[in-house]
User: Fold this.
Amino acid sequence: MYRVGVIGLGSIAAMYANPQAPFPYCHVGGIRYSDQVELVAVADLSEQARERFRQTWGSAFPDSLKYYDSDQAMLAAEQLDIVAVCVRGPYHFPVTMNVIAAAGQAGGPRAIFLEKPATCSLQEMDTILAAAQAVGVPITVSYSRHWAPHVLRLQELVAEGLVGEVRQVVGYCGHAFLSFASHTTDLICQFAGYDPVAVYARGRVPEQAVPDGYEPEPALDSMIIEFPNGVIGTQIGADASFGGFYAEVLGTEGGARAGIYIPPAVWDKKGNPIDLEKLNIPENASVFKVAYDQIAQYLDGGPLPHCTNAQFAAVHEVGFAGIESVLTGQRITLPNQNRTRKIYANG
Ligand SMILES: NC(=O)c1ccc[n+]([C@@H]2O[C@H](COP(=O)([O-])OP(=O)(O)OC[C@H]3O[C@@H](n4cnc5c(N)ncnc54)[C@H](O)[C@@H]3O)[C@@H](O)[C@H]2O)c1
Assistant:
């Protein structure tokens, strides 16, 4: 069992579900259902947050679970295999750098699971990626809806040619480019590829006071993502007929609809539905259980988990290029030239 420590005990770490949830949408719930990882330590600056966690989740974990009042205290005291960074966006950079520093020590963490949005600037992203690479630790970013079992299965089937050659991927979900819409940007890349080359976007800049050195985070109205094989990704900044957080994959032989909150659908060239019985669609599971299992399998010697290193970097590049495009009115080729723009991505 790989030892996990979680930093930040707010909504996504622990509060979006409770121990009764069958498919908990939170880190500790997914860790609890995995038989490959175990939660050994948690850290939060807030006494109130630690107490709330103890009340909700304390009895669901062994009494040996350790509580710390900061990330640094936990990292100094514990030998951890995986560290989850679940603090707000502007704190991702300093906290992740602390985890990487610990990873450079003997017995330090060997994998980092970082909540989206990865960082507030591309310069920060470049810095954490280089520092993590120097100590041989991968960073997986939690575009959590990616790991819905039926979405992963459709990804596999589409890669095997289920809809023929993919031509377009249309994703639905707007709001803030990095903090929210990035889930659907990832979903588009999940089906189109993690090698985007250019972005054109429209959006709105909120009237919002932000701390010194930051710019407000624009919201996405519409974004076109170009891929080198000619595939076009279109992200529509609104929910559609089936809600948000899903994508339609349109190919030469048919199409597919995939998203965490909707059942999968596949159709042939003429639009006739394809029987899902034949496609071995798996049972549902907590997306966090699936993600932690992938990280554990990597530590066992397996492949990199999804949404790791170059993959999350590609999604983050698209998000920043979308913002750059909104602010300049230009089509932005990747990688972004402007790497210092600092966005208050507080999701
Ligand atoms: N994957 C998803 O679907 C999803 C959903 C919601 C939030 N998120 C992301 O999760 C992250 C956290 O969001 P949230 O809504 O859970 O935040 P939150 O405000 O509910 O919780 C954050 C917690 O981190 C603690 N904290 C801050 N700095 C710390 C430090 N140095 N050491 C220890 N604890 C520290 C705070 O006290 C707070 O309790 C954000 O990046 C957000 O975008 C992801």
